[in-house]
Amino acid sequence: MTVQRWFYAKDGKGVGPVMPDELRQLANSGALRREDLVWLEGSPNWVPAGSVPGLFAEGTPPPPPPPSRDERRYHVYDLLLDMVRNTLDQRFVDRVSLIFGQVGYYTLFAAMAVGLVLALVVGVKTDSVRLILMGLGAILLVSVLQYAAKEFLAALDRLNKTTAARMASAAFLNCFALVNILGGIFILVGLGYVAIKTRSWGLSLQGVFAFLVGEYVAILSLNPRALNISLAGQSSAGEEAVGVYTFLVKVWLRLVPIAFALGTVIGTLQLLYAIALSFGRTSEAQAMEYGFEGAYTTIVAALQPTVGYVLFLTFYFLLDIARALLAVPGKLDALAERTKEAKP
User: Fold this and answer.
1) Would you say 336 and 29 are in contact if contact means Cβ atoms under 8 Å apart?
2) How far is the first Cα of the chain from the last one, in angstroms, to the nearest whole number?
């Protein structure tokens, strides 16, 4: 018989494993609240503890529900946000991360093959063994970074699921989503207009990229569960600040696969262009210049998952230090009280 093992979120961290009886004791003692997130080993997502049947005693009052649409003022922008939220949900976010991660991973195979051809062609034409060796060294480096990217993308996904945070309401999330939706449209239209006037089509591509990133960030804002962030209904100002900072860091975390994929695609295209130049009438120096630029772009893109993993751990390390410092005054007060009570 398989033993059920549970994990629960405490101070933004996953705690466990605990047995079902232990989890029930935590709930009965008040150490675990209905709005806290719990996860059963093997299940796909974290869920609020209040949604687990039989975990809380029947007499335990549930947390107050958030105000309904009829109990608060309704704005026309709420129609836009609700439409995006209901159309593009957490499954869409997970699918986007998975697809871009795979695109970046497999594009690195193409980058290594193209880089090898470029190194051999330019090396033979310039009779330079050094260039061939440099190309082989770059390919070896990219292969290592490719493996690291695969491992760290999976690690980042696990960290996202095991590091929870809570916010009092969706006010900040809704406003942040609205700014990104409207800002992305404004940049798309503005850069498109300038591109038509100046016939600089690169600007139009930048506008499309900014628009897509802005809309994706808005979708993340409207699906906090995809970032393992819950709306608790009640939280202190400190918890709210931690929730906002965690949200911003996790949004950036979700953008890592996109930067990884787009960077590797751009780098590979630059390497292909360098090969085309090497077979044309241009000098080998110009082909080498584009080749070095493509190699640099590819390497920087392949580093994104590793850098994202390190920075995410650094953020939570600093967050733990901040929590410890904030807890010092309370502990000192408690120590002073015990000292007074101990005096005759």
Assistant:
1) no
2) 58
